[in-house]
Amino acid sequence: MATKAQLQREASARGLFDVVREFLAHCREPVFVEAGEQPIQLVEGRYDLEPRGQGCVLHAWGEEGNLVRRIIAVKSQKQDRMEVLATSFGRRDIRLAIVDESNKTGRVRREAGHARFREYRDWTLSHFTSAPDLEHTISPSYTRGALSLGREMWAVIGVPADLSARAA
């Protein structure tokens, strides 16, 4: 037989699960965002949310990668964004967001793409843009810039992950 404390924890986890599930149900294009990770679009059949322990577990997978996080608290919620606190395999206090990107025209994923270029710590990044400028560039769809280290410099073009190899 379950103790009163166990029943309260289960009720709390179930309540958290219900809040996250309801938020996801109202999103037209939900995206799971964690700093330093590629955002994962939460497409029906490619993610799972279930109450477990003292929270709920969100498992998301796709071409962008695979993430499993135990959500332990909702920190804030707006109409199109939910900030949560999570844990994962010994890591505590991971701040995540679930964002409805339907009104942001790809901004969340594009900004995350910019952040991935920052992984080259010793290199200097410059001239990064994704703004349309057809007079000086091949396309407004690609993030463009320069990456330099000492006397070495590279032109950088970021191609969307969902673009076919032929189109790229």
Structural overview:
The protein has 168 residues and is an alpha+beta fold. It has 2 domains: 4-104; 120-158, no CATH class. It is built from 2 helices and 10 strands; from the N terminus they run αβββββββαβββ. It has helices at residues 4-26, 107-117, and strands spanning 30-34, 40-41, 47-52, 55-62, 65-77, 81-88, 91-100, 124-129, 143-149, 152-158. The strands form 2 sheets. A 7-stranded antiparallel sheet has the order 2-1-7-6-5-4-3, covered by helices on one side. The protein has a 3-stranded antiparallel sheet with strand order 8-9-10, with helices on one face. A hairpin with a 2-residue loop joins strand 6 and strand 7 (91-100). The longest helix has 23 residues, at 4-26. The radius of gyration is 20 Å and the shape is elongated. The relative contact order is 0.13.
Please tell me the overall pLDDT. 77
Reported for the largest beta sheet, the result is: 7 strands, antiparallel
Physical arrangement of strands within the biggest beta sheet: 2-1-7-6-5-4-3
User: Which residues sit in consecutive blocks of at least 5 with pLDDT less than 50?
Assistant: none
Give the strand content: 35-45%
**How many structural domains does the protein architecture include?**
2
Basic shape: elongated
Structural class label: alpha+beta
Beta strand count: 10
Rg for CA atoms:
20 Å
Order of helices and strands: HEEEEEEEHEEE
- Terminus-to-terminus distance: 60 Å
Helix count from the secondary structure assignment: 2
Fraction of residues in helix: 10-25%
